[in-house]
């Protein structure tokens, strides 16, 4: 099947991300996202060819709170491009945080590194960081911990499974109120259009109105809200699972009752299409039974790999390094 | 003097460790251990030649509890093979340990790395890790903190000093009850045979029966149990010292009385053969006086280097990378 | 303007720092400092050429207390020379510090690394470390946290701004009693001579007598002590700002009153020469208003870069690696 790529006509210059910081996906145009998806797929097929592309470049991972999964993904991405990594994680950063502003830390690190990935407990920290320096800063999570490269990982997984990120019925299941990952995914998919969202949650954890409004405002996306996963799982092309956190509930009983309803297991999976893809931002606790891992529909560990590939695509782009053999402006793939 | 190598006839395929996890030394055959010893010696003599052998490969060091010595040894080994390193150590791993299973962490990391070294406070963690993924997992200590590459370092030090790991009289001194390092060394040497073990400890810290049974079950190894180091030191080819930990004793007096008996110093060393090798797994506290360090018989810092070389040999083997100039199947060296 | 280099006739051998540890700047001769300044300038202009100079070499950063700024500078310096980095920072070092002496840790690490940068809370730790091993050890701060590469960064910034480190009027402002960075800078500049120091501090935080004596003992350096920054700022070629720490004062009122007097802002800067350079060892708290950052006289973030360049110069020198194209013995630049 031929790949379907979002229907936008692009000039080469539109792809240009050199020197750009990415705090939210609003910093990246839809054509640029398509470009990154194509680039990640190229990288996946040509790891040896790109293994020296960023030789001599240095990534600084400034993790003011630990997030090992995300940090290792960024670091691996840089190493697999042939670059170097410096940085700190959590407890190590004592001297940095002791009274020094984020701006000063960034201005210091800009003397060491060519690109920064920052994670910080305070919302807005990544924006402040990006405004402080001329080198590109990538948000690896601040405040609500939504971050653009997580959404890029999600998109790459859909692209990898379906060769498209449009014309899909996508279920989002679990905690839709606080799960900012799903909010970001919906907002981004709405920029491309032609997605039907099936929003599956207990009434206590429904999708916020502003996200629903965003879907309504799109030309071609629609949604429905349901409470029963088993009733709709058969309709879905993809099912995005999220954690249902105990602390969201008033009492233990509610938590226990609801939690099980939204656990994906082999029994529920029997009702799904054979080609459905199961996504999850990880780490999971128990919302996906481990018996699902060996089902070919399980895509959540692939998602980890796709996250790394998208970080390679993004970092090589903002650094302005060329990937040998990659056609920057592949018009064949960019068509209506 | 010609090297004596354990008398086993091997086919090339027996050496094959590609893709293999090493949780205990039971995962490695005696011929494979001989092969690793030969490989480590080759590496030691050809560091520049092997310095790009693992280019593009990534080691993940997953240290759920800190062990700087072991972590740095693995990391140096990978870097000296030309590969990259990612990972976490102790306090950094908050996000990994927060509710995520070891299996899930490994399945995630398998998307980043080509080989894993894991250290974990819980016995069995390394086995669980190795069962979770297809990439090779090397146990860097779990539970009792015995780990196979420590024993490989010990064997390499004997090989380096005596050009053999058989036909030796080896004293093991100190805490023989809880010192799992010496248990592992004895069990491995018994697979090769022709070692006389002299077990030197206070009666409170004698060798467990199952280890004695293992020696008895071997065809050609023997042991004797003694309490006085000075009485036997003159007979030994090698003396393996261990820490005598205060918390093993009921009272301070017993500890102080016994501790000094098992401290190796220049005076005791005068009674030893001029070629005796002193080993110690490190870190030492005070069981070897620092005056011994400058004695040519002190082999414990060499042991550190040998540990790194054996980790280079083991990682290059499980990764299946070729070492330029190394004869994989050197039949000349494999003879009765 | 032609560079002025300290007036010493040198033989090539005097430059030789191979294998040398640097615990204080007393370990480096004045000609060697000039050599390092020239080397750092060369590196700055030839980063691509030197990017593989230390290929295969390993730096160990042993940070017994965190100092992210300094650690990242050393690590970047090594990476930009093409070498590798291993190490620990703060909380990670539990197993190293648990009962093991610094000497033993160094003897272990000497099997892994080719050069060590050590930071330790105890004064004298770096000296002990350097005496324990044959590989070069660089002090990255012990006890009072003065360290030689900070002073080298300061000198390189003066050299970069004025093409000389002599024939300057240099103001040092703030806490001159406890600020060991300025003590070290003064002592080193006195070895080169022809500097007029203007010591600007509240009477509670005056320069210690032994530093004044050092200036007096020099042939060509002088000083004056003042309390008012604005009165002298117009005379200065360079102004070295330091933190005024709250805990140095008996009461909050004194602190608040004095603090503001020694804050550099745009208003005070209007009184200064257009070519004056503002230095600060960083991190700053509020002793330099952020509005100063965009003034071309602000040199404190340049200082960060110069620190990295001097660490590249120093590490390449003690490692004995050649920098392609660099003239080790440039007699043209070494003249009276």
**Span between N and C termini of chain A?**
16 Å
CATH-assigned homologous superfamily of the largest domain in chain A: Aspartate/ornithine carbamoyltransferase
- Largest interface, by Cβ-Cβ below 8 angstroms: which chains and how many residues each? A-B, 27 and 26 residues
Strand count, sense and barrel status of the largest sheet of chain A are: 5 strands, parallel
Structural class determined from secondary elements of chain A: alpha/beta
* Number of extended strands of chain A: 9
Commentary on this structure:
3 copies of one chain form a homotrimer. With 336 residues, chain A is of the alpha/beta class. The first copy, chain A, folds into 2 domains: 25-146 and 307-319, Aspartate/ornithine carbamoyltransferase (Rossmann fold); 149-302, Rossmann fold, CATH 3.40.50.1370. Chain A is 38% helix and 14% strand. The first copy, chain A, has helices spanning 30-45, 47-50, 68-80, 94-97, 102-109, 125-132, 148-162, 180-192, 209-217, 229-232, 252-261, 266-269, 300-319; strands at residues 58-63, 84-89, 115-120, 137-142, 168-173, 195-200, 222-226, 238-241, 277-279. Chain A has a 5-stranded parallel sheet, covered by helices on one side. In chain A, strands 2-1-3-4 form a 4-stranded parallel sheet. In chain A, helix 3 crosses helix 13 and helix 5 crosses helix 6. Chain A is globular, with a radius of gyration of 20 Å. The first copy, chain A, starts with 29 loop residues before the first helix and ends in a 17-residue tail after the last helix. In chain A, 54% of the residues are buried. The model of chain A has no long low-confidence stretch (mean pLDDT 90). Chain A binds chain B through residues 47-48, 51, 66-69, 72-73, 75-76, 79-80, 89-92, 282-285, 290, 293, 301, 304-305, 308, and chain B through 56, 58, 60, 84, 86-88, 91-96, 98-100, 103-105, 107-113.
């Amino acid at each position: 099947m031929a790949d379907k790529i979002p229907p936008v006509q692009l000039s080469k210059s539109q792809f240009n991300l050199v020197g750009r910081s990415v705090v939210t996906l609003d910093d990246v145009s839809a054509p640029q996202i398509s470009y990154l998806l194509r680039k990640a797929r190229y990288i996946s097929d040509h790891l040896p060819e790109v293994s020296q592309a960023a030789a001599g470049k240095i990534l600084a991972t400034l993790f003011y709170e630990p997030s090992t999964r995300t940090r290792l993904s960024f670091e691996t991405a840089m190493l697999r491009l042939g670059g170097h990594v410096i940085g700190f994680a959590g407890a190590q950063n004592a001297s940095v945080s002791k009274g020094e502003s984020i701006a000063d830390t960034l201005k210091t690190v800009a003397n060491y590194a060519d690109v920064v990935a920052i994670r910080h407990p305070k919302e807005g920290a990544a924006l402040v960081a990006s405004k402080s320096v001329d080198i590109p800063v990538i948000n690896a999570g601040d405040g609500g911990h939504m971050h653009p490269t997580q959404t890029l990982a999600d998109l790459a997984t859909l692209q990898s499974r379906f060769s498209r990120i449009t014309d899909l019925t996508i279920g989002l299941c679990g905690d839709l109120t606080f799960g900012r990952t799903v909010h970001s995914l919906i907002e981004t998919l709405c920029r491309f259009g032609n997605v039907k969202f099936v929003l599956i949650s207990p009434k206590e954890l429904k999708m916020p109105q502003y996200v629903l409004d965003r879907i309504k405002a799109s030309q071609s996306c629609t949604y429905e809200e349901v409470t029963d996963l088993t009733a709709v799982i058969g309709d879905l092309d993809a099912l995005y699972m999220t954690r249902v956190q105990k602390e969201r509930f008033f009492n233990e009983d509610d938590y226990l009752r609801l939690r099980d309803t939204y656990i994906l297991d082999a029994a529920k999976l029997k009702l799904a299409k054979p080609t459905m893809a199961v996504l999850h931002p990880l780490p999971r606790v128990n919302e996906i039974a481990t018996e699902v891992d060996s089902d070919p529909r399980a895509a959540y560990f692939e998602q980890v790999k796709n996250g790394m590939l998208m970080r390679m695509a993004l970092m090589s782009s903002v650094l302005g390094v060329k990937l040998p053999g990659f056609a920057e402006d592949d018009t064949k793939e960019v068509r209506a």
